[in-house]
């Protein structure tokens, strides 16, 4: 893991390609898959699952027996932990619920904003060998709270043709019965356009690999998507008050996600920088996924030395990290300096895994600097707004002059006519 | 304008291509433009402006003198109307401002959602011959209320190399000084990636032609966008109580936007359907833009006869119209049946132009059925959320078991290690 200055980090950044460029090379494959799914529906889903996941399925939908079987495979400890997490996630997201509002602007005028849930949501859960029951909770709970009527999960099957039992159990715990054994770009295409078996949805959310991310970009517009997720990232900013072992452990925890995970440690103490690096090498050796961690740290790990706190926060806002840990004295007093971050963890006892699994806020967060303009997944992702306008005859007549002026300035005379008809009533019929 | 049944409308719809498919044929040109702007910056902007807008510019930025000159060209009536509209738009959007919130979940635990503005917004305003000062208001005001620090407008120049004076005056009225004479895909690329003159923004909003819409899709992910706008549309649903002339005028006003604008009239009264069609032919003849209107109605106008009110609302929700006018008795009582619509106009005296220019709610609305999952442009488009998590040592230790369980279930042992380090402290150093 390299130790560099803030300036040299910024210079490095200027020379990297963007997420958009990185992914254009997938387009040929991804577009072909989308096209095929639109043309041949279910058949293409069976074919791609055989080709990519190595499984010949006879059914796409997970059966009731499979749910039952899964429930028998998971242990009680897991269920208890899952339920505690679920409760925390529900409590936090409940607070995101927004209400429709109306107001009477003046006599005869009512304006408002009506909030309604989307009709159908599709949730992508990564699969194969790994199990991500936490992603099931984080993606389904906000949709349920928004009162989305239909929720379907898609997830690639294991080699034995089954879905990971932890994922299935989590799905049942949050009340989702519709789980399809489909992964990759083909799953996104099926959700976006529908097939014989899979209903078209209004919005697709959830993390996935590069093919999934790219397919989401392509179907975006015909359907809503949550975000185009890049590799996961953490930024720990610490002063001398933070325990070295904690900093090291948190950086390592992020690096284990995958070889492209990005890890930043920012401090103005060179001593602390050295100590953290040494501690990372010690802890690393006892970690199962040390090969992934080493690769990730080598390519995408940076310890950045800043001149002062101002530079630290400038850099944080420039990186706009998915996860930001502030391990500083009086960390919560520093919040006003943070402009861009997906989730902010304050103090020495708020490590990222607390947020990944348990605390309540969502773990689906904007990556690759998109926290500069995006938000964590939330209840608001599953709701939409409609404006309401109601004028009385008198109120409209009073407003007629400026409307006609503006319409005529824009050369839209038929717009003006809609007002003239009501004001002058030449052709008004009943 | 054809009169058809709801069933035959739905059958027609199933056989049309999607917005996404329609636009893929622009990709070659659009991607080439984006690439060029990234490579050669300002120079490419001058070149494309010469090629596409027929103007050889010497400056991209509108000068102070040009603002002054514009102010002298516009009339007082326009300014007064603009200011009344501005006040209404500000009053409505003010109510969309959200507050950050925090709560103490239990002893030692603080969770929250912090809301901050995006840093820089770029606003596309269509140009050339037409003037859209109303779009300046509708796009800038929510950004200003969100306290976006830097706002830049891009708009294609007129043949004389100047920007429409109404657009410039509107920009000044809402406090935007940075206006670039750039249009098309090249303007979107400049905003997304920056050039020598144009600063890279965090989000691009505003309406544009097909090239602009497609370029927005391509840069999406590297930068946020509001939506991918398709042709504008209206859906008027009326019962026998609605004046024929008003319905006809409102349908015509939508059709004048462009040849691809979509116009729906839904009613269960065949008599009303016939009367409205006849009235449209009468009013049409006196309208300036009758050629556009005729073309639009012929290709994209539909009068749809439904069997009953239930079918009317099912159809509305299926179309998910950008603008919905309910000209029915007790129109506001019907609101609960509307699931999908960008803006809803209630009663006989709330015609669409009232919303386009004046009432206060935004006129940038989801088109082409995307109201099923998208919202009007609003203050929320210029803000983003960050989650806040702060646990005390005691609170974390109490939560340690379930976090470790869940992390280990997912095979992420370095995540578990971040908790172990804090609980068991084997390597904890200070």
Automatic annotation (TrEMBL), chains A, B:
EC number, UniProt record: 1.1.1.23
Entry superkingdom: Bacteria
Catalysed conversion reaction: L-histidinol + 2 NAD(+) + H2O = L-histidine + 2 NADH + 3 H(+)
UniProt binding sites for NAD(+): 124, 186, 209
Record-linked Pfam families: Histidinol_dh
Binding, Zn(2+): 254, 257, 356, 415
GO MF annotation, one: zinc ion binding
Pathways per UniProt: Amino-acid biosynthesis; L-histidine biosynthesis; L-histidine from 5-phospho-alpha-D-ribose 1-diphosphate: step 9/9
UniProt entry tagged with the keyword ATP-binding: no
Matches recorded under InterPro entries: Ald_DH/histidinol_DH (IPR016161), Histidinol_DH_CS (IPR001692), Histidinol_DH_monofunct (IPR022695), Hstdl_DH (IPR012131)
Signal peptide: none
GO biological process, one term: L-histidine biosynthetic process
PROSITE patterns registered for this protein in UniProt: HISOL_DEHYDROGENASE
Cofactor binding, per record: Binds 1 zinc ion per subunit.
Cofactor(s) named in the record: Zn(2+)
Catalytic residues (UniProt): 322 (proton acceptor), 323 (proton acceptor)
Keyword line: Amino-acid biosynthesis, Histidine biosynthesis, Metal-binding, NAD, Oxidoreductase, Zinc
Record's GO cellular component terms: cytosol
Residue positions binding substrate: 232, 254, 257, 323, 356, 410, 415
Enzyme class: oxidoreductase
PANTHER family: HISTIDINE BIOSYNTHESIS TRIFUNCTIONAL PROTEIN, HISTIDINOL DEHYDROGENASE HDH
Protein role: Catalyzes the sequential NAD-dependent oxidations of L-histidinol to L-histidinaldehyde and then to L-histidine.
Family: Belongs to the histidinol dehydrogenase family.
Family matches, as NCBIfam families: hisD
Protein name: Histidinol dehydrogenase
């Amino acid at each position: 893991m390299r130790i560099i200055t803030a300036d040299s980090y910024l210079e490095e950044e200027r020379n990297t390609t963007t997420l958009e460029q990185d992914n254009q090379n997938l387009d040929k494959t991804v577009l072909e898959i989308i096209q095929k799914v639109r043309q041949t529906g279910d058949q293409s889903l069976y074919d791609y699952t055989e080709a990519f996941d190595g499984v010949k399925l006879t059914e796409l939908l997970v059966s009731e027996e499979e749910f039952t079987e899964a429930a028998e495979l998971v242990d009680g400890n897991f269920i208890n932990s899952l339920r505690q997490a679920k409760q925390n996630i529900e409590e936090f997201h409940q607070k995101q619920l927004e209400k429709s509002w109306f107001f009477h602007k003046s006599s005869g005028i009512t304006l408002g904003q009506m909030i309604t849930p989307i009709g159908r949501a599709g949730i992508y859960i990564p699969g194969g060998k790994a199990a991500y029951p936490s992603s099931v909770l984080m993606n389904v709970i906000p949709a349920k709270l928004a009162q989305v009527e239909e929720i379907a999960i898609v997830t690639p099957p294991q080699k034995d043709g089954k879905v990971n039992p932890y994922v299935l159990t989590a799905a049942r715990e949050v009340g989702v019965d519709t789980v399809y054994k489909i992964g990759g770009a083909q799953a996104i295409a099926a959700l976006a356009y529908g097939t014989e078996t899979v209903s078209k949805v209004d919005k697709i959310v959830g993390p996935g690999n590069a093919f999934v991310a790219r397919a989401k970009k392509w179907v975006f517009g015909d359907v809503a998507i949550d975000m185009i997720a890049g590799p996961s990232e953490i930024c720990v900013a610490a002063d001398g008050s933070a325990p070295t072992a904690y900093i090291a452990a948190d950086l390592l925890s992020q690096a284990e996600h995958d070889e492209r995970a990005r890890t930043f440690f920012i401090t103005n103490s060179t001593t602390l920088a050295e100590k953290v690096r040494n501690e990372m090498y010690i802890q690393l050796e006892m970690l199962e996924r040390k090969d992934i961690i080493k690769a990730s740290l080598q390519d995408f790990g940076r310890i950045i030395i800043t001149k002062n706190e101002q530079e630290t926060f400038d850099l944080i806002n420039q990186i706009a990290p998915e996860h930001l840990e502030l391990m500083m004295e009086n960390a919560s007093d520093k919040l006003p300096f943070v402009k861009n971050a997906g989730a902010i963890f304050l103090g020495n006892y708020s490590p990222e895994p607390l947020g990944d699994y348990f605390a309540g806020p969502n773990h689906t967060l904007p990556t690759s600097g998109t926290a500069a303009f995006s938000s964590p997944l939330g209840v608001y992702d599953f709701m939409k707004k409609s404006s309401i306008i109601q004028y009385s005859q008198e109120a409209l007549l009073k407003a007629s002059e400026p409307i006609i002026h503006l319409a005529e300035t824009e050369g839209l005379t038929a717009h003006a006519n809609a007002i003239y008809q009501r004001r002058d009533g030449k052709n008004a019929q009943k």
